[in-house]
Amino acid sequence: METWHFYEELGDRPRSELSTSMQGLAAICDLRQEVSSGGFDVYFRYWGGDTAPVALEALSTTLGDEWATVLRDAMSLFGGAYPTRQEERESMLEELDIDDALDDLDRRFLKAEASLNADALLSALLDR
User: Fold this and answer.
1) Mean pLDDT of the chain
2) Rg for the chain (alpha carbons), in Å?
């Protein structure tokens, strides 16, 4: 199955209905979709960032350590424990002076995205 077809079919279905590995794949799709369309600011500011911990857990084994490091570094901008509530992240984004850091992370993400065919790797996982 093609990655984005899986993601589209998932829609608003509860992620809890998915296996752990499929939850990880969906969270990686959230990351890729949101960061590609508006950067880490958009990812964290809205619902996509809700699944960041799940994406982080899945990234090393699916797309590699470079991807996991970029997301881990982005999540660390919030300080201690990652804020899982969207409203808390949005408020922190307004308070913190991290625009330059987010821009750097966006560039690192795009570099990771260009370094391999993530669609093919994720689609191969879906076919297993």
Assistant:
1) 95
2) 14
Our CA angle for 38, 117, 69, nearest 5°, is 60
Q: Where are the domains of the chain?
A: 3-127
CA–centroid distance for 105 within its chain: 12
pLDDT of residue 128: 81
pLDDT for 1 equals 77
Q: 90: burial class by Cβ within 10 Å (0-12, 13-18, 19+)?
A: middle
Token pair of 100, please?
């330059």
Alpha carbons within 13 A on the beta-carbon side of 75: 23
Q: Let me know: does 30 contact 15? Beta carbons within 8 Å.
A: no
- The structure's pTM equals 0.94
Q: In this structure, are residues 116 and 62 in contact, taking their beta carbons and an 8 Å threshold?
A: no
